[in-house]
Give the backbone structure.
Amino acid sequence: MTAPLVERWRARPAVRRTLDVVNAAVVGLIAAVLVRLAPAAVDSVTSLLVAAGVGAGLWLFGWGSTWLLAASVAFGILRAMAG
């Protein structure tokens, strides 16, 4: 809905620089949250392996995030059922 408006604004150099700064700030905030939450989310070797596998699936193989999320949920359910 706002994409055409943003594209029109990007034609202006001052607005483009501002949007680039905002984009960098958002990426920095996401990285800071990741660093703060990672120790709580990855608390065992199994969760570390799942996280590494999902990361490899995303960045190395280009698998879709929906399929990786579904596979992670299925793995978690199977692990919980196994005891």
Summary: The chain has a mean pLDDT of 91.
